[in-house]
Design brief:
By secondary structure, this protein is of the alpha+beta class. 45% of the residues lie in helices and 16% in strands. It is built from 15 helices and 11 strands. The protein is globular and about 75 Å long.
Length: 402
């Protein structure tokens, strides 16, 4: 009897996909119409809020004692439809890069990102690899940029194998997060010229994603971020949390409190609300983040940070605006608008995304070849140390075929 050859993976059938999409076309139409209806109501409420005299709005805000999503720190009536236009237009890329040079020359930018190899069910005992990479660019002709990496291996003890309630991937993600924050704090603590430095964090400074986690995990994320905020404030080093695709609802939550019509329909995201009003480089006024959930954990720290995170939305590419989060001390020091110009310049170089973060990501990312090298080193080391690593037959087959 002949041996059966390994089967070749079947390609997807475009005709089936097209048929199903056509059958379910009304699902998309209904969703789109519902979104547009809600968006129209929120945009009307947004215009009403922005046209409210400052004294009247301040009096209304003073009566709101719970969390209301966002509290404006700058006058909304001085804007154009709630937007601060940048009026930055250039005839060609050469002129835009000249503006970048004028704004970033002598400004050191620093960013960190991470990557990981998760534990595999095909290898026992479970082992994970976490790597972070960073990029420092002094934007001067007499100093070179710096790119480097740091890695850690998570052993069965690190992965807390005795506690089956904790998904291994979540433990790995938390270790990566803590490593990224620790590196940012270390950098901030050694900055010699804070007035000419910008530290970029790829993510939100309000860890809302941790709301769904157990208390211990929430505590770990909050403590890491509080340490970062504290370092920025203590050393007066500007810090920006950059969220490219934000699903935050802080402004629309504010509108639900301020407008009865908005309170009666489902929320849309802040980015959806603002996108139609914004051209490249435009931003909103500065708001204090006033959110339920994880910010209450910030209040339990030695220093209360529940009202110490501010945000704006900044149009940096053809998509919806990015969310920019910063420590409140930057607003109090009147440097937020200068920092936003630095971020604008970074996104010009990066083609719509901050160049420093993009480069840190490229430095940190682990490729398929890195995974294979890691497993090979691991196997050789285990053999030398007379330790048992058990590979599944499926994994061995894949390694042979690839």
């Amino acid at each position: 009897m002949p041996y059966l050859l390994p089967s070749v993976p079947m390609a997807i059938k475009p005709s089936q996909i097209q048929t199903i999409l056509q059958d379910k076309r009304t699902h998309f139409e209904t969703f789109e119409k519902g979104q547009q209806s809600s968006l129209d109501i929120y945009q009307t409420a947004w215009q009403a809020l922005c046209q409210t005299p400052k004294k009247t709005l301040d009096q209304w805000l003073a009566r709101q004692h719970g969390t209301i999503g966002a509290r404006p720190l700058e006058a909304l009536t001085h804007t154009e439809q709630g937007i601060c236009p940048s009026r930055l237009q250039w005839q060609n890329r050469e002129h835009s890069l000249q503006w970048v040079h004028e704004n970033l020359s002598g400004i050191t930018t620093f960013a960190v990102d991470g990557s990981q190899i998760f534990p595999s069910k095909d290898l026992s005992p479970p082992i994970a690899l976490v790597q972070i990479g960073w990029f420092e660019n002094p934007h001067t002709s007499d100093a070179d940029y710096i790119k480097d990496i740091e890695l850690d291996i998570m052993t069965p003890r690190d992965l807390e194998l005795g506690d089956r309630s904790k998904p291994l991937d979540r433990l790995v993600n938390k270790r990566r997060f803590q490593m990224e924050i620790r590196r940012l704090v270390k950098y901030i603590e050694q900055v010699s010229d804070p007035e000419h430095c910008l530290v970029l964090f790829d993510g939100a400074l309000v860890a809302t994603f941790a709301d769904a986690y157990e208390e211990e995990d929430r505590k770990d994320y909050v403590e890491a971020l509080i340490g970062l905020l504290q370092a920025s404030e203590d050393h007066r080093v500007p810090l920006v949390g950059y969220v490219d695709t934000s699903s935050a609802h802080d402004l629309t939550t504010l509108l639900q409190h301020h407008s009865a019509s908005a309170a009666a329909v489902p929320k849309v995201t802040d980015a959806q609300l603002l996108a139609p009003y914004m051209q490249w480089g435009d931003s909103t006024p500065i708001f204090q983040c006033d959110r339920t959930g994880i910010l209450s954990e910030y209040k339990k720290q030695k220093q209360d940070y529940s009202d110490r995170i501010i945000f704006t939305y900044l149009k940096t590419n053809q998509g919806p605006p990015a969310r920019i989060e910063m420590p409140r001390w930057m607003h109090e020091a009147s440097i937020t608008h200068q920092v936003l110009d630095w971020v604008r310049a970074e996104t010009i170089v990066g083609g719509g995304y901050p160049y420093a973060i993009e480069t840190a990501d490229q430095t940190a990312v682990l490729q398929t070849s890195d995974r294979q090298v890691f497993f090979r080193i691991l196997q050789d080391w285990a053999h030398h140390e007379d330790l048992q690593l058990r590979w599944s037959r499926k994994m061995m087959s894949k390694l042979r075929r690839r």
